[in-house]
Description:
- The protein is an alpha+beta fold and 215 residues long.
- 32% of the residues lie in helices and 29% in strands.
- Strands 1, 2, 3, 4, 5, 6, 7 and 8 form an 8-stranded antiparallel beta sheet that branches.
- The relative contact order is 0.18.
Amino acid sequence: MVSSRFSLIVIFLLSLALVPTIIHSYIKAKTDDGITVSTLIPIIDGFSSEPYTRHNDAWVKTMFDSEDWVERVYNAPDGVNIRLFMTRSYDHKRLYHHPELGLSHGGDFRSIGVVMFGERPKVPVHLLRHSSGSGLVAYALLADGKFIENPVLHQISESLVQLVSASRQMTLFYVADSSTSNSTEFNQTAAAMVLKAAIESFAAKTNTKVKTLDG
């Protein structure tokens, strides 16, 4: 039995514990900045593009818990085809936890780690290469106006804030091609050009500090 002199403290602590439940389970509070990627179609000089039709709204909802997405194939002048996928979701883990397993359907890609891309600012890009010696996947994650190098650490560091505040979206920029040699530096690939254009298009729409990425 709790002494009556501690009852107010106990009630206060229990009330604090209920705050995250109320915010996320009952109110389901979310910060909607009004930005969508579904209307973004980056334009790149010398590249043509068309929609990629393998995925649909239901698949993206199941995979990433998102209704805001766009996916296109860009055809480079040298004949390389690059697929670009962008989406935003309040469920950050759905975006950063091996997106290649769904988007590249279990292809045998092996993580190379994080490479720093561009100059102003440098963007941490998660790079994977195909075991066959040709083909790559690269993706960048943007949350709260910052590109995320270690998404797990980011989510841990933000966990206390997320407990008592409305959910905020993370943005995934994902590019893939099946023909680039593993020996080609990422910054020199057509996939890097497409990723650069996607990030800059998003930045222009959101008025973020990411204005140029000199690759």
